[in-house]
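Standup notes
- DV: blocked on the single-chain target, sequence here:
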Amino acid sequence: MDDMNRLNGKTAVITGGATGIGRAAAKRFIEEGAFVFIFGRRQEALDAAVADLGPNARAVQGSVSDEADLDRLYAAVKAERGTLDIVFANAGVGSQLALGKITAEHIDETFDVNVKGTIFTVQKALPLMGPGGSIILTGSSAGTTGAPAFTAYSASKAAVRNLARTWTEDLKGTGIRVNVLSPGATATELAREALGAEGLAAYGSMTAFQRMGDPSEVAAAAAFLASSDSSFMTGSEVAVDGGLAQI
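- DV (later): unblocked, structure below
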């Protein structure tokens, strides 16, 4: 991939960047020439990721559900880089609770991270962004299809899909574009925790490829949305889901 330098000189922020899709995207963005700030809740995971990602990666610890943490993230970006080109609002949580068992705490936790967290990740980034900027929101196949026992998660991801539509209107004239990247059955730590090994295999078998997607396959689509190759795309959803929500 030496000839891939679509992101040369670009600065990116990736939330939920220590593991899963975020980590794979950080690797891909750096390979394509970007300088990347990863943001996540677990210092240990962040340290391991930065050690692996090398000199063009920085880590900031915090939660997207905490505005003060996001302020620290963007202060670090501003101090070292001055401006920001790419925001991959990827942090998300999801766990199963069937209708009849749902609690207020479960709803609050899911929406605080997936919806409120996404909103403030983007809003607080805007002062550092300008024409050519790319905002990528992580959606989910579950935002389109029904996913049994995933009321809170699925509803939160449907909300994320709409955020891109609304912000496309709000960002008119800025030269900043915003798109949704919607994975499906992807072999991430979050998926493993939520579904277990057996659930993971069953989920993968539902795709047209009869397997789980690899985080690097989603990261490749993220790099496309981050780059000027997607310069005439905004308000769109790119599904990387093995056909899960398409058929």
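- Follow-up: The chain has a mean pLDDT of 96.
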